[in-house]
Task: structure prediction
Amino acid sequence: MTRVVEVPVQFDDRTFDQFARSYSAGVAGGAGGAGGPVSSASSASSASTGERLLFDAHTTQWASPYGLVSLLAAGHLLSEQSAEKPLLTIPGDKDVAHYWARAGFFQKAAECFEIHGKVPRVRPASESDVLLEMTEIKGADDVHGVVGRIQERAASILQGELKLEAQATMGFAMALSEACQNIVEHAGTSGWVAVQAYNWRRKLGRRVVVIAVADAGVGFRHSLEPTQAKRFGDRWSDATALESALIQGVSRFRDPGRGQGLAGIRRYVKRWAGKLSVRSGAARIALVPPWDDDVPLAEGLPPFPGSQVLLIIPEQKPE
Result:
């Protein structure tokens, strides 16, 4: 039997909860919901009963880097838990499929999905606005490699198109590094990162650079539980774990100075009027700029394994 996970028509951070709800229902054999985190064991439940999940993206008309790295994270988790890979139908719209290919999605997806549909051939990502194609993060060496590959291209975009000061380039590299390092320190498994520049028509009407990072690991709550749960008692949850990490700068490591990664990203994003959103388990916390209408904290969301991080740095308005 095959259970279908619907990929939204417009797949980005706004519709991610819709995707998470469908995913949760699929891995739970139709009994998914928002009652708690989706664990690796529950993700394997369909596989253990001989069922497969089909991620249906046939009607998808757009997917942001955030949507694509999250889709890879889900596929990776399921492929690790089963002898058979989950299924994936590619978008029927040729332009959409072309963008996914240009972003390096299908190359990585082939490792964890059985892909159905014709994958288009495209030029290398270096010839496009994809600053960093879908890249897997397994350890610290991968993080260093990502930063090294993107620094020169990012500097050109940040200063030339977004009109940021030269010093913003160094901060951007730091933010990218720390977002990826979050996978190494908290996930307990691989994750993916992608970076792209494009026109943000939704509300801003300006160019932006987007960093999207996702994994399907243990998540913030489980990672921080040994050192933080006792302090919160009955209040301990996905939301309080995210508040601890982003607002208070706590870490699962007891070393002085650890846990400053997200706090550093927060300062950088605030300096350039950007947005930072971190989702884990059934909660999401966000640093919301004036040009966005997201909520600072959301709880009781459809659960999804691991963590998903979104950074948006906009073009600066002339003073």
